[in-house]
Design goal:
Elements: E1 5-9, E2 16-21, E3 27-32, E4 43-52, H1 73-88, E5 94-104, H2 109-119, E6 124-130, E7 134-140, E8 143-148, E9 151-162, H3 163-168, H4 173-192, E10 196-200, E11 204-208, E12 211-221, H5 226-233, E13 241-242, H6 244-254, E14 265-270, E15 273-278, E16 282-286, E17 289-299, H7 304-323
Antiparallel strand pairs: 1-2, 1-6, 2-4, 3-4, 3-14, 5-13, 5-17, 6-7, 7-16, 8-9, 8-15, 9-12, 10-12, 11-12, 14-15, 16-17
Helix pairs in contact: 1-7
Length: 326
């Protein structure tokens, strides 16, 4: 069994880093699944963070054979319709319905990682190879939590438009309400953990490639374990829903595939500070193809066809960094 390897580029940085495994290391890289039920393991390895060069093509091993498992349009619409029925019945406030798209071909994860670093400068970009879980690569715009010297920062992120769409039509009350659910949830978790000097920044638009999201940023002082806070925040309503247990049960029984590490979280913990990100805009590599993942929040007033188009826009953004030559 070969050793795990990971490369990442922090938001706003030009530098790429890797983890040199060592029992005496002072840092920890974590890769956590969507569901913390043991079916897919939480990966963590200890070591030293060092600067790295971009991995060359052929560095990563693709042992897992490609297997197609795309969500059809009819399957997605059926799940969204069911979600809307439960929202109308009062059993759910919001649920995130996601889908998987399989693309056959020999795509280079190293090239995709390089392209994502160039294209998504404000995202956390990573490439991970692990013998137990395979090869994953992504560029996520969503911070779960960051901490340094007891100062903690997190964000509420929800709603999706294309830049062209937001230019023609302003955000709707439905989209503001969807993002507000996430904001209220995160504020409650921070207060439960004893946050002091809590500041909630004004809501802003966050651009990510050709997409735009609604973002609210939190800043506070907080002592205690950053991992315990991360696990309490995860999964947020931005990737699960409200009430959380009902939403996660719905996802389990209606999505038709296992998210594995999509909408989990990942990042680095060290003595100088820690930062974890929600694993969005990601893909799982196999020998002969890739699996892409995307979803959208369903709330009262959601339109079934529009929700499919939202996932299509997200998948196009991911696929453009995988299949396009640099």
């Amino acid at each position: 069994m070969h050793s795990p390897r990971v490369w990442w580029r922090p938001p706003g940085s030009k530098d790429v880093y890797t983890m040199e495994a060592s029992d005496s290391g002072t840092s920890l890289f974590r890769f956590v699944p969507f569901k913390l039920n043991g079916e897919f393991p939480s990966i963590a390895w200890k070591g030293h963070v060092v600067k790295a060069v971009l991995p060359e093509e052929g560095t990563v091993r693709l042992d897992e054979i490609y297997e197609k498992r795309s969500t059809s349009r009819d399957e997605h619409k059926k799940a969204v319709r069911k979600a809307l029925e439960l929202i109308e019945a009062g059993e759910l406030e919001k649920v995130v319905v996601s889908r998987v798209k399989s693309v056959k071909g020999d795509f280079s994860p190293e090239t995709a990682f390089r392209h994502k670093c160039q294209t998504h400068r404000d995202a956390f970009v990573y490439l991970l190879e692990h013998p137990r879980i395979g090869v994953w690569c992504g560029a996520t715009p969503e911070l779960l939590v960051t901490a340094s010297d007891n100062r903690v920062e997190t964000v509420s992120l929800a709603g999706t438009r294309t830049k062209e769409g937001i230019g023609n039509n302003p955000w709707t009350e439905k989209e503001y309400d969807e993002q507000g659910l996430v904001t209220d949830y995160i504020k409650g978790i921070l207060e439960k953990h004893g946050a002091s000097d809590l500041r909630v920044e004004p809501r802003e638009d966050l651009a990510y490639g050709d997409l735009v999201h609604l973002e609210t940023r939190f800043r506070c002082s907080l002592t205690g374990s950053i991992v315990e806070l991360a696990n309490d925040l995860h999964p947020t309503p931005a990737v699960g829903g409200r009430p959380l247990k009902n939403a996660c049960d719905f996802i389990l029984h209606n999505e038709g595939f296992n998210r594995e590490y999509y909408t989990g979280y990942l990042g680095v913990e060290s003595a100088s500070g820690s930062a974890y990100y929600v694993n969005l805009r990601c893909a799982k590599w196999q020998n002969g193809g890739v699996h892409l993942f995307a979803g959208g929040g369903i709330v009262d007033g959601s339109d079934i066809d529009s929700e499919w188009e939202e996932t299509e826009a997200k998948l196009r953004a991911i696929q453009s960094t995988i299949t396009k030559e640099i």
